[in-house]
Amino acid sequence: MIYLKSSEEIELIRKSCLLVSKTLAHVGTIIKPGVTGKFLDTEAEAFIRDHGAEPGFKDYNGFPATLCISMNEAVVHGIPTEEEIKENDILSIDCGVYWDSFYGDSAFTFAMPHVSDEIIDLMHATNDSLYLGIEQVKPEARVGNVSHAIQKFIEKDKNYSIVRELVGHGIGRNLHEGPEVPNYGRRGFGPKMKEGLVIAIEPMVNMGKRHVRQSDDGWTIVTRDGKPSAHFEHTVAVTKEGVDILSNHDMVEKAVKNNGEIKTFSRKS
Ligand code: MG
Ligand code: MG
């Protein structure tokens, strides 16, 4: 089902999204080689609960944690573990919040200090594709325009691969609502976007081939070829004029910049 939201409902989604962003920024201040995903997860859960909200992913379909932490060849849905983060890891950290009946959802990929330039380029391309997709969001335009903009940039211009099995989604009172927002597709196809539509756009980009599989833990999606994958996500609302980005990566980028023990990463364009 696709539910269009009132401006009051959008403000509640924004509130949840901003808490997600603050949580990711908090993670951005404490993440470094040597700490564990489990530590970050415990911190994130406490941070969210201290604000009077609930983790959006915990117990969702049985997922056991607050954060999805997907490292290196893991694409999404990684479970935080007791394994120490290494100097050359990248980590997609995806966070959801449930607050006053509405979900917020956003993800950011963090790079540890010895990550190669080649992988940083993959991260930049993925992040840039997210904003190219967002640029296509406006009333009366088709979801396929978003999908196509992301796919064209990633596959034609950058020669990376788009994951097909997982897609972006509508969001609101449910974490996942219609419409699906694939990161591949055709301009002029798919549902028409209307004022009040709220969607999470989340390109998942593989350095090698597009194929993925589920790992033995029953959750983590990993690349079949073992090459790295990056993931960035914003929740956005369709407005009368165009688009309103409800989550905020500026505060995450700032935290990363001030961290000192991880690689700086900020939006280029
Ligand atoms: Mg997410
Ligand atoms: Mg999502």
* Strands in their spatial order, largest beta sheet: 8-7-9-14-15
**Helix residue percentage:** 25-40%
CATH superfamily: Creatinase/methionine aminopeptidase superfamily
Specify Rg, calculated over alpha carbons. 17 Å
Largest sheet entry = 5 strands, antiparallel
Number of helices: 5
The beta-strand count equals 15
Name of the CATH class: Alpha Beta
Tally of domains: 1
H and E order: HHEEEEEHHEEEEEEEEEEH
Distance between the termini: 34 Å
Question: Mean of the pLDDT scores?
Answer: 98
Low-confidence stretches: none
Layout: helices, strands, pairs:
Elements: H1 7-30, H2 37-50, E1 54-55, E2 67-71, E3 74-76, E4 90-99, E5 102-111, H3 117-135, H4 143-157, E6 161-162, E7 168-170, E8 177-181, E9 198-201, E10 204-206, E11 212-214, E12 221-223, E13 229-231, E14 234-238, E15 243-245, H5 250-259
Antiparallel strand pairs: 1-4, 2-4, 3-12, 4-5, 6-10, 7-8, 7-9, 9-14, 10-13, 11-12, 14-15
Helix pairs in contact: 1-2, 1-5, 3-4
Bound molecules: magnesium ion (2 copies).
Describe what you observe in this structure.
- The protein has helices at residues 7-30, 37-50, 117-135, 143-157, 250-259, and strands at residues 54-55, 67-71, 74-76, 90-99, 102-111, 161-162, 168-170, 177-181, 198-201, 204-206, 212-214, 221-223, 229-231, 234-238, 243-245.
- The chain is built from 5 helices and 15 strands.
- The termini are far apart.
- α1 (7-30) runs parallel beside α5.
- The mean pLDDT is 98.
- Helices cover 30% and strands 24% of the residues.
- It is an alpha+beta fold and 269 residues long.
- The longest helix is centred in the first third of the chain and has 24 residues, at 7-30.
- Bound molecules: magnesium ion (2 copies).
- The site of one magnesium ion has 5 residues, from loops.
- One magnesium ion is lined by residues 105, 169, 200, 202, 233.
